[in-house]
Amino acid sequence: MTVAAGEPLVSLRDLRTHFGDVRAVDGVDLDIKAGETLGLVGESGSGKTTLARTLMRLEHITEGSILFDGEDITKLSGGQLRRLRRRIQMIFQDPYSSLSPRLKVGYLLTEPYVINDVPKDERYSVNELLEMVELSSEQARKYPHELSGGQARRVGIARALALNPSFLVADEPTAGLDVSAAAAILNLMKDLAERLSLTYLVITHNLNVVGYIADRIAVMYLGQLAEVGPAEQVLDRPAHPYTQALLSALSEPDPRSRGADRDLLVPGEIPSPKNPPPGCRFHTRCPYADDRSRTEVPLLETVGPEHLVACHHWRTVGPNALMAEDIATRQQPAT
Q1: How far are the Cα atoms of 57, 98, 294 from residue 90, in angstroms, in the given order?
Q2: What confidence tens digit (pLDDT) does each residue in 108-166 have?
Q3: Predicted TM-score (pTM) of this structure
Q4: In degrees to the nearest 10, what's the CA dihedral of 172, 175, 178, 183?
């Protein structure tokens, strides 16, 4: 990583990923700062996993740009793309499906070195990788099906760390784990971020997870960003009615205090990305919707320090109704 901590390591500009008529990602502008953990939240069908796969160049980019460490990676191919993938790795949602059942853990951990032709003096040993994720050396002799869910997730993390990446994409890192195992994985990820200077994009439908691990939160709805801001502000003062709805079922953003797989509940169903509603895409489910919502696309608007929302009515959403006048006053230039 050559950019300084706090500066953008990843920058997405007008990113679009369409599958025929399906607008899975449809115009996203987003920065991920070096050294931070950004949580990307949304219901199934919101486009968050497609955005992550596009960022990793696993999906074709329809339009827009992706800058990684200042380089436009949308134009890379062949050997350039292979070198990039040493710096960007993914922690998969289902560790068992990403680990061959016929190979032992020890081989699975070193396989990335063979695939990427990594010189021997740049490789971690199997024991070093296992130690990083707090597993004993005995696990190297096991097959994936002999591991617990938490152990398999740790092996998946160790495999991702083998190439010494600077950026990790974690897709639902606690899915399927009980509360204690989920908390242990999140604690491990936080510790690794500090020790190895990692940057994370954590994809989840679970606000308990991002509330515990994320520095900032981006809320995605139907291929677009609804809200982006510091985790504390987004969780305590949601500026978009969609964010407010996602939070309505939660009382404590800590995976150790509630079930880690609680579903997000909002009225109605998310529309099809083949035919998204005009205007604000959330207006079909929004209690604040009016004629303007149905015809005019809201742009991301600043509502606080580094806190952006795409909503015509953010001033009347939840606690923001009481804060809007104060925020507007603080944003006025000094005279």
Answers
A1: 12, 10, 38
A2: 999 999 989 899 999 999 999 999 999 999 999 999 999 999 999 999 999 999 999 99
A3: 0.89
A4: -10
